[in-house]
Sequence to fold (281 residues):
Amino acid sequence: MQIILSMLIFGTIGVFRRWIPYPSSVVALARSVIGLAFLLLVRAAKHERVDRAAVKRNLWKLLLLGAMMGINWIFLFEAYNYTSVAAATMCYYMAPVFIILLSPIVFGEKITLRKGICAAVAVFGMVLVSDVLTSGLHGAKGLLFGLIAAALYAAVVIGNRTLKDISAEDRTVMQFAGAAAVMLPYVLLTVDLPALEPTPSALLLLLLVGVVHTGIAYVLYFGGIACVPAQTAALLSYIDPVVAVILSLTILKEPMSQTAMLGAVLVIGAMIVSEITPQKD
Fold:
């Protein structure tokens, strides 16, 4: 239930991003800072401390992965600005394809026939989602940003597999800190902060994205994955794009052709099948 609830929350972030009238870098910075503060408060309330020795062993990797996470958020939020939430989310969920393709290079793992077919089907589904076959390159910038975000997320996932003897909670805290450390100077150099109108509604939405979509969602997710098999957690993660597509169609009233809907089904279905381990007799 914790994983399901966290995925339901993650699935709504595209809608909230649409309602925040600030640059994507500002939204990503606020998400990392507020999410970090929330996680630290939760850990303090539970009397949990950061394992400094584990952090020190992995410090530079954690900071690099945090920077990549922050940049990933910027590209994802920009994707929402240039294309529909559904299309941007489908692009983002190409991350497992990147992981499948990079695993032989990074970890020496073999791509099984099933995973190879699933990756190919997901790529074809992504072509259908983009509607490039019928509408040309309209919205291509948003799709490109979504795919860049997916590639960065895949790199973060792969990078986390190289970390040594550090808890998921400590990883998240340090990566949020790394994301904030990289994005703060970038925002200060590129955004005219005094020109931004700090309206109550915009500030409330930023707070919700930081506390609910980042802090609470990550606490629920990590609490859930500690209690279920990894495959179950992976399969439940596909609740996120399903929710995003539904909200894109119903709340934002964004158009989605039948071809794009078929593509979304292919992307999600192929990645779910790729996560299922065949039963052995």
User: Anything to note?
Assistant: The first helix runs from residue 2 to 10.
